[in-house]
Design a protein that fits this description.
This protein is an alpha/beta fold and 291 residues long. It is built from 9 helices and 13 strands. It has one domain: 3-Layer(aba) Sandwich (UDP-N-acetylmuramoyl-L-alanine:D-glutamate ligase). Helix 3 runs parallel beside helix 4.
């Protein structure tokens, strides 16, 4: 089987700051690092490093060849990444000593994916494959409709969160991943708790308190604890979790095992500074010791 990821590709500029800036404040940074990023790219790298076969569907500008090369280096199939006139997307990320972050995102080429490119890519998918979406590209609803028609398992990582985007995709989804704050926002917008959504499987991540898995068809839920670590940088931890969960699903792991592995990967990720370039591989995750 395989994972098809309609996902963003960004250049991440990470600034180290003594604290997150307040509105109207100018704050000096004492460090700057560049990484491959974007929720889509992060998730593609995570799924590849977790042992899955992943095809990335996306776009970069003429300034983005380095990003495509980096994805290839990390084991991601880049056949369906187009080069478009718009500049490559980028993110400006401020990280304070405790690991919390603030992000400014410029979509760029991520919002210039054509219908033809999307259709061509998904024409190679097979029934039972996984289609992964996030809210950093265009063509999300088109992809979800095509995915459902092709018999793919349609999964949505609801970030950056927008209630309207989630509501538009709900009829096509098999699997939804969102954090605790986003779950509250979605409930306010729809009047439905996560366990009442018309989606077969839901995961609500809860930061240092772990994650909750909900099987809406069986009416069952289970909480999974987070690993005890001291965070350095929380950027990309949720994307790492998502990538590892889906890679586990693709490999046929029982959901508790897939979530346990994803929790270990996310915990290891927050001890590292950076985004896609520092996502741990399966060997690192299996060998990691916590507590």
């Amino acid at each position: 089987m395989a994972i098809w990821n309609l996902g963003s590709i960004n250049a991440d500029m990470v600034y180290s700051v003594p604290r997150l800036p307040r509105p109207g404040e100018t704050l000096a940074s004492d460090g700057l690092r560049y990484f491959l990023g974007g929720k889509g790219a992060n998730m593609s790298v995570a799924t590849a490093r977790a042992g899955a076969r992943v095809h990335h569907i996306g776009a970069v500008g003429h300034d983005g060849k380095w990003a495509v090369d980096r994805l290839m280096e990390y084991g991601v199939d880049t056949t369906h990444i187009a080069t478009v006139p718009e500049p490559t997307g980028h993110a400006i990320i401020a990280v304070e000593p405790g690991g919390e972050n603030s992000i400014i995102l410029y979509p760029g080429a991520n919002h210039a994916i054509s219908a033809d490119a999307l259709g061509l890519a998904l024409s190679s998918a097979q029934a039972g494959d996984i289609l992964l979406l996030q809210n950093e590209t265009n063509r999300q609803e088109d992809a979800a409709r095509i995915g459902r028609d092709l018999g793919l398992r349609v999964c949505y990582a609801a970030a950056p969160f927008d209630a309207g985007a989630v509501r538009a995709l709900l009829p096509w989804l098999d699997f939804l991943i969102l954090n605790e704050v986003e779950a509250g926002q979605l409930e306010a917008a729809t009047g439905k708790r996560p366990e009442d959504l018309p989606v077969k499987q839901v995961i609500v991540t809860m930061g240092a308190r772990g994650a909750r898995y909900i099987d809406t068809e069986k009416g069952e839920s289970r909480d999974f604890p987070a690993m005890p670590v001291t965070p350095v940088d929380t950027t990309g931890a949720g994307d790492t979790f998502t990538g590892y969960v889906l890679a586990g699903m693709d490999r046929g792991l029982p959901m508790p095992q897939a979530i346990g592995l994803a929790s270990r990967a996310a915990a290891l990720m927050v001890t590292r500074q950076g985004t896609a370039d520092v996502i741990p591989d399966l060997k690192d995750v299996n060998e990691a010791r916590f507590g």
